[in-house]
Hints:
This protein is of the alpha+beta class. It is 33% helix and 28% strand. It contains four helices and six strands, in the order E-H-E-E-E-E-H-H-E-H. It has helices at 11-14, 57-64, 70-75, 85-99, and strands at 4-5, 22-26, 32-38, 41-44, 51-55, 79-83. It is globular, with a radius of gyration of 13 Å. The N and C termini lie far apart (30 Å). The relative contact order is 0.22.
Amino acid sequence: MIPLPLPARLLPGLELLRGRIIRIELRHTPFALQLTLCGGGLHPAFGPPDATIRAGLEDYLALALRREDPDTLFFSRKLVIEGDTELALSIKNALDSAFG
C-alpha cells in the first residue's frame, strides 16, 4: 500500500484519525474509500468504519472548489454523516482550516 503524503499543516487536525477509520461514499454508486492515518500519511483501511461521510459527486466537487459550505450541504441532506459524527466533523474542520 502506498500512503498518501499529507502536508504538515494537515497532520495536527487529522491526528484523531490515527487508529480510526473514516469511510467516504459516493452516493448512488458502489464506490467507497476507507482511510486511516498511519505514520505521516493516509492509508486504505479495512473493517467497520468509525464514521461515514456520503455525498454525490457534484456535492464533493462543490466542497472541494469552495462553491458550497459543508453546513449548507449537511442541513439540506446532500451531505450525510453517520457513526461518530464528532470524528467526521473534526476531520471536516481540519480540512476546512487547512484549505480555507
